[in-house]
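Bug #77: duplicate submission created two jobs. Keeping one. Sequence:
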Amino acid sequence: MHRRKLILSGMAALPAQVLAGAQARPAVAPPFQPIRGLIDEKDPITWVFTGDSITHGAAHTLGWRSYSEHFAERVRWELRRTRDMVINSGISGDRLPRLMADLDWRVIRFRPRLVSLMMGMNDCVEGPDGRAKFRGALERFAAAVDAQHAVLLLHTPNLIYYPLAPQRKDLPAYVEILRDFSRTHDVALVDHYQEWSGMRRTDDDQLLLLAGGAIHPNQYGHIFMAQTIFRDLGIFDPASPVCQFFVPRA
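Kept job's structure:
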């Protein structure tokens, strides 16, 4: 009972601007402005996050929240968009062509206003021979999202520890495909790969964010990814509990 009272009193003590989302938000880059417009809408909307095991967020997070769950907490609670729905249809081990084959079930039926896609970590195992197929599937995915009058948000995968994942040595080329697609089609891209590369001074910096030291973000990696998304969307607030979550540094 005492613990419950402490939790409730702590929630009541949160700054009003955090709970109401009333604090002035910084300007965002042009590709992200349509997404900021969704956040500022009065009517509730559906956000669909899809992808592979990184979006799925299972196992490697050790029971902690994934980046899409942190997003839901920030938007549905702290920004008081309580009637919004945040859906995660990521599936571990998936690749973009398989997602395309299952698109109606995993994305379209939810009638989303925004579709968030993070893919490439498993696709890159096909190496140079798979690049054109990945780009083609990306084009079809974007067209399908556009046909639903939804906004597309792309993500690059996180940086990995290549000595423990040699089969994914072509990942940088797939990251470049995502970046080029973003530039060509003026689609918002959260570049996690660049953010992870920029924070890395030593291998230890990076390994602290990876489960088992290979490819999957751990609980801290997901926090880092969520905070990157918040900054790009202009909804990062240092007074927010979600934005204050600890991210280790070596």
